Amino acid sequence: MNDLAPRNDNGGPPLDDEGPEWGDGDAYIYFNWKAAHQRAWKPKSRDQALFRLERAEAIGLTYEEYTLEILERGRYLSSADTERIDAIKRKRDL
């Protein structure tokens, strides 16, 4: 029963740089997470990437910031989402 992960542990790969690329954990889990991360960030098509880039530029965000909002919250921001856009921009300046 003591082998349970902490509540804030999502089972992802370790963040330190010592040892092998996958750390002390299972290499299989690490490489599955790495592949899933790459698939999540890769748009399904060129048109989708251009659409996201156009929308991001229209509201003053980078492609990465706009895409991260979609991946984390499932929201496609628009100019009406001024509070959230301002919060993202403030975070950028830190």
Keywords:
elongated, about 55% helix, 4 helices, mainly alpha, about 90 residues
Structural classification: mainly alpha
**Terminal Cα separation, in Å?**
40 Å
Our estimate of the beta-strand percent is: under 5%
The DSSP helix count reads: 4
Written account of the structure:
The chain has 94 residues and is mainly α. It is built from four helices and no strands. Helix 2 packs across helix 3 (63-73). The longest helix is centred in the middle third of the chain and has 15 residues, at 27-41. The mean pLDDT is 86.
In short:
This protein is mostly helical.
Chart the SSEs and their pairings:
Blueprint: H1 27-41, H2 46-59, H3 63-73, H4 82-93
Helix pairs in contact: 2-3
